[in-house]
Amino acid sequence: MLRYLGQRFVMMLISLWLIATLTFMMMLAVPGDPFTGEKKLPPETLKNLKAAYHLDKSYPEQYLYYMKNLVMMDLGPSIKYTTRTVNEIISEGFPASAQLGVQAIILSLILGLTLGAIAALRQNRIPDYTATVIAVLGVSIPSFVMAPILQKYLGLEWELLPIATWEGFEYSIMPTIALAVLPLAMVTRLMRSSMLEVLNQDYIRTARSKGLSPRRVIIHHTLRNAILPVVTIMGPLTAGILTGSFVIEKIFSIPGIGKYFVDSVTNRDYPVIMGITIFYSAFLILMNFLVDLIYGWIDPRIKVGHKEAN
Amino acid sequence: MKRWVATTTAILMVLSMVLLAACGKGDSNAMAEKQVLNVGYIVSEPPALDPLKATDDQSGLILRHIMEGLVRVDKNGKVEPGMATNWDVMDGGKKIVFHLRDAKWSNGDPVTAHDFEFAWKRLLDPKNAAEYAYQLFYLKNGEAYNSGKAKAEDVGVKALDDKTLEVTLEAPVPYFVTLTSFYPFFPVNKKVVEKDPNWGTNAKTYVSNGPFLLKTWVHDKKVEIVKNPNYWNAKRIKLSQINFPFVGEEQTEYQMYVSGSLDINRNVPNDLAPKLIKEKKAKVNKDPSMYFYVFNTKKKPFDNVKIRKAFSLAIDREAIVKDVLGQGQTPATGWVPWGIPDFAQNKEWVQTHDPYIQPKANPAEAKKLLQEGMKEAGISKLPEITISYNTNDGHKKIAEAVQQMWKQNLGVNVKLANMEWKVFLDNLTQGNFQVARYGWYPDYIDPMTFIDLWVTGGGNNHAKYSNPQYDALIKQAKSTDDQKVRMEAMHKAEEMLARDIPVTPIYNYTRVYQIKDYVKGFYQEMDGQFNFLDTYLTEK
């Protein structure tokens, strides 16, 4: 197990290094730089600016300089937000993004699993159709449409919740719902179909014929097995929540790091592009690793770290 | 029984009087008890509140309320005293001596001329790599110091004593005093900055001298400023606090405004604007900026002046303004937009000359000129024409309208090419375009900020236009502080642009905003910036 963990860790570092290097190369290949603007700067000012951010050096030198700092966990200064460092942007913005993401995941899991399970148990009856409609709507209505609708009704018309900004828990409810809709729909659909599949398995029939109560059959035999496919998509699901948050954070004016993902590219703010990409990649790689571990824990047949056994 | 009726009547009468009085109070200008203004203006984190690093509108809005330069500009565009009470212009406009008032920094230190000298040199110091260093290139040796060719002592700014600041310029600049109201010219507290270079990055360490003080700055969330009780003109300021939440979405900001959590909304959604303006729910202000199409005069077919003229004449600007935009914009009549004054005639520049451009298209003349131009250029068929613009819904709609007009009025097929902003700029700089959209807004309120754009080799001269006579006129205007001579030279230069057409102006910009009725005493400065110094709130 330890050896496996060690191997995975090295692999994770290599992936991260590859991502960082590729991003660095692509970033510099895109036309324009941080100082391209509507009004052109005088050459001497431009020269001073480039020197201040080490952009006057050759690409390999810039790359080495960046990597050296990266190893020291220093992501450099933001070029657009001149008085902040990338480390500050991430450490100040991540708590809001994380809160939103975690709430959205919890909401989509709890509701999605419940709805999916109910739909499967009441197949082709009203609860099933309701769950299906919710799932279809959730997948087909993009969050940037969902969010303004929520704002208009919950915020403006019925005055139940604040429209935007980030001042306390009630401010996080609407964005959480908007962000959770898509994963919620995905989880519902997946849970329904895997539940149905499990319900038709021989061991369920065995369990029932043994005389176990329907409740015990569902909780101990069906749910535990049906949940496996949902765990598999937790990785992509987290990725979906992260990318979804770019839009949601903007619409609800949330002080997270989501908006920097797009804005930094528009601004060609090189250190922020690199910093945010590396941070998100590291996060996703870690999530996938955790999912693998959880997978082995839920289903003992899957032995994490014993590939050669197959 | 009777007594009961009498009592009730009396009570009702008293009540209705109170109610009437309350209503009357609402109509009058009685000040509300709570003087806190919520402003929807700032879209995202202001990049910097240290005058050294600030280069944008949003930082500028906050800065001009928490800091104060030598002067301020009032609502009519006239200079009013700020940190300086008066000034003497000498040496044909090349030397200006400012006399400072007794004023205090928020930490209690006196504001001195040394603070100004220090701040300006700090901005020009090449080590500090300030983007807006060039705003101070008017100073003697300013540019030389910034490029490492002169020393700090050679720069034309000197504190003669605590209260006297002597400024020497490279050439006479009649608008220099006005310029000092712009944030790159703001002072900083020398002692504080020398001790802590990062003083300007958070509210705790921030030291300022303006009518308001920086109370809160939560990154990516909000800025709150409060009245500065020690401001020299504190009695002028009626608001106790201004909140600037950062709202990144126009639709969100609009809904927050409607719901009452914002008192002013600067970012009205484009699709709602025409309707809101019609219903008088949004206001329109002149924005002294120009939207235009620039021709690449070094590339076929627009290297021919007659062809350029033909394409310019084939644009129906009135239709664009009315049918495509609908936000109170006006068709351009020349290169200098509305809102910019002619200082010799004391009138708006656009009213001092006959229009160079007609609002309607002139297809007959355009066709004729196109034929003549093609003959001159020796071509029987036009190459494929492409309009370049940066990806944006508004630019797209205008480009589509122009595409149709050129098709209809000239019989020319036009392609559209949209690009991401910085890719677009890169292509423009490299000359990879035929005709492209662009916009220009003033750096200072003077026609020169527009007129000198097209000098040979100018950094923003994407048309690659070059005309020695035009260059000479600009040089002449820049050599004197005699407004009559300057304005005359610039009028001639504009006429030359109208003849040579390196650029075809389309429309004058507007600023659409919403403001609640109970917000009084609000105005916009000449450059369109919001000013809350006289603002107060009445009862809702």
From TrEMBL, chain A:
Name of protein: Oligopeptide transport system permease protein OppB
Organism: Polycladomyces abyssicola
CDD domains: TM_PBP2 (cd06261)
A GO biological process held by the record: transmembrane transport
Cellular component GO terms held in the UniProt record: plasma membrane
Membrane topology summary: Multi-pass membrane protein
Record flagged with keyword Oxidoreductase: no
Acetylation found in the keyword field: no
SUPFAM superfamilies (UniProt xref): MetI-like
InterPro entries: BPD_transp_1_N, MetI-like, MetI-like_sf
Localization in the cell: Cell membrane
Gene3D superfamilies the record matches: MetI-like
Record keywords: Cell membrane, Membrane, Transmembrane, Transmembrane helix, Transport
Domain ABC transmembrane type-1: 94-295
PROSITE patterns in UniProt: ABC_TM1 (PS50928)
Transmembrane segments: 100-121, 133-151, 171-191, 226-252, 272-298
A Pfam family of this chain: BPD_transp_1
Family to which this protein belongs: Belongs to the binding-protein-dependent transport system permease family.
Taxonomy, superkingdom: Bacteria
Automatic annotation (TrEMBL), chain B:
Stretch forming the signal peptide: 1-21
Pfam families xref list: SBP_bac_5
Any single Gene Ontology cellular-component annotation: ATP-binding cassette (ABC) transporter complex
Solute-binding protein family domain mapped to chain residues: 78-461
MF-aspect GO terms: peptide transmembrane transporter activity
Coiled-coil positions: none
Xref: CDD domains: PBP2_OppA
Classification via SUPFAM superfamilies: Periplasmic binding protein-like II
Main location: other
Key words, A-Z: Peptide transport, Protein transport, Signal, Transport
PANTHER family tied to this protein: DIPEPTIDE-BINDING PROTEIN DPPE, PERIPLASMIC BINDING COMPONENT OF ABC TRANSPORTER
Protein's name according to its UniProt entry: Peptide ABC transporter substrate-binding protein
Native species: Polycladomyces abyssicola
The organism's taxonomic lineage, starting at the top: Bacteria, Bacillati, Bacillota, Bacilli, Bacillales
